[in-house]
Amino acid sequence: MSGDVAIVARGLTKRYASGGASLTVLDDVDFNARRGEITLVMGPSGSGKSTLVAVLSGLLRPDSGTVNALGTDLWRQRPEAIDRFRMDHCGFIFQGFNLFPALTALDQVAQVLTFAGRPRGEARRRAAEALEEVGLTPRLSLRPAE
User: Fold this and answer.
1) CA 100, CA 69: separation in Å to the nearest integer?
2) H or E element: which one contains 12?
3) Backbone φ, ψ for residue 32 (5° rounding)
4) Residue ranges per domain, the chain?
5) Where are the alpha helices (DSSP H) in the chain?
6) CA-CA distance, 129 to 123, in Å (whole number)?
7) Does the domain at residues 5-89 carry the CATH identifier 3.40.50.300?
8) Are 79 and 71 in contact (CB under 8 A)?
9) Averaged in consecutive runs of 10 residues, what is the pLDDT profile of the chain (146 residues)?
10) What's the sign of the alpha-carbon dihedral 41, 45, 48, 51?
């Protein structure tokens, strides 16, 4: 395993406001993750885990603080560069289902590969292989509701 730091975040603060109320979800949070290691973010419901991951991956801009990802100050990048960073280096497992109701299982997976720049045929082939690996071949043509 490599000891290289992949993500260094310092002083992250994120507040949500609604009407006259404000809720601080991240309050001066520091975070490090090293290349080649698995890093888990754990805590009770409402403790800011999802907000932290969203800030570290470029989905949500913090109110203050810095995120250095792979040697680059993430929040000083253009939106396209942040999107590319997320596409190339981040993966998410969401609590709830985030599937497109009109797409089949094969299309759901192939869509991500297409966004990553793979040609449509290659994306579909690789998606089918990935779904086969997890035992979903019989469900390739089914939609989420099915």
Assistant:
1) 30
2) strand 5-18
3) -130, 145
4) 5-89, 105-139
5) 49-56, 79-89, 105-115, 120-133
6) 10
7) yes
8) no
9) 79 91 94 88 88 92 95 93 88 72 91 87 94 93 89
10) positive
d(CA 32, CA 54): 15
Cβ–Cβ < 8 Å for 136, 99? no
Q: Model pTM? A: 0.68
Q: What is the DSSP letter of 33?
A: E
Place of tokens 């969401």: 94
Q: Which residues contact 107 (CB under 8 A, 6 or more apart)?
A: 100, 127
Phi/psi region, residue 143 (left: phi>0; alpha: psi -120 to 50; beta: rest), is beta
